[in-house]
């Protein structure tokens, strides 16, 4: 099980470098070290969009929770992923207090840097430049597949976390099997232009 601290460290390194190739190398190195079950969640964290989508926690809720930082990293990627699911599933009467309890416990186990990362993740404040185009190149590099194939799979799947999971576990063969599905949005902006209408 990979520590969240590894994701936070990679995120910080990506923020601190302006070189696109260095950013891709940092992300690819992290992806290679992950367990297959952690890839989708980690990709979501690094791009600032958890695989579950919008979490629905307000700025005042999460920044209003003050917990002393943990002295050593212990949180794993899967534990943060589970906490996000738990927060999303908590609805109805008393849900605000239950969400605060889950978030408080999470932040109580986080180091100062991890807590900052978690708060920004929950409120949409992660802006480190590891967006879809950069991440898909890192996925291709980590999985040893052509970048064009990874971009095609992302365009057709519309899901970066899913594309990463396929690339890291099934390689080229899995990516080639990704196709159109009815009612699943695609990313046309990743498509290459055609020379004429018939093409």
Task: Summarize the structure in words.
With 199 residues, the chain is mostly helical. The protein is built from ten helices and no strands. The model has no long low-confidence stretch (mean pLDDT 90).
Per DSSP, what share of the residues sits in E-state strands of 2 or more residues? under 5%
**Main beta sheet:** none
* Low-confidence runs of at least 5 consecutive residues: none
| Helix content class | 55-70%
From the N-terminal CA to the C-terminal CA, the straight-line distance is 47 Å
**Basic shape:** globular
Task: Supply the helix-strand structural class.
Answer: mainly alpha
In short:
By secondary structure, the chain is mainly α. The chain has 10 helices and no strands.
List key phrases describing it.
globular; 199 residues; mainly alpha; 60% helix
Walk me through the topology.
Blueprint lengths: L3 H13 L3 H14 L5 H8 L12 H5 L13 H13 L5 H14 L3 H12 L8 H12 L3 H11 L2 H17 L23
């Amino acid at each position: 099980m990979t520590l969240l601290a590894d994701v936070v460290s990679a995120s910080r390194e990506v923020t601190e470098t302006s070189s696109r190739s260095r950013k891709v190398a940092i992300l690819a190195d992290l992806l290679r070290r992950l367990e297959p079950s952690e890839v989708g969640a980690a990709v979501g964290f690094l791009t600032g969009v958890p695989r579950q989508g919008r979490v629905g926690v307000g700025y005042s809720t999460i920044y209003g929770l003050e917990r002393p930082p943990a002295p050593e990293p212990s949180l794993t990627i899967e534990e943060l992923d589970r906490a996000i699911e738990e927060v999303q599933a908590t609805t109805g009467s008393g849900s605000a207090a239950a969400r605060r309890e889950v978030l408080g416990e999470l932040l109580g186990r986080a180091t100062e840097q991890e807590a900052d990362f978690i708060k920004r993740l929950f409120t949409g404040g992660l802006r480190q430049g590891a967006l879809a185009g950069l991440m898909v190149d890192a996925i291709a590099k980590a999985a040893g597949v052509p970048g064009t194939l990874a971009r095609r799979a992302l365009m057709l799947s519309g899901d970066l976390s899913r594309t990463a999971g396929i690339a890291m576990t099934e390689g080229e063969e899995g990516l080639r099997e990704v196709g159109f599905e009815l009612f699943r949005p695609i990313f046309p902006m990743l498509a290459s232009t055609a020379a004429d209408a018939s093409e």
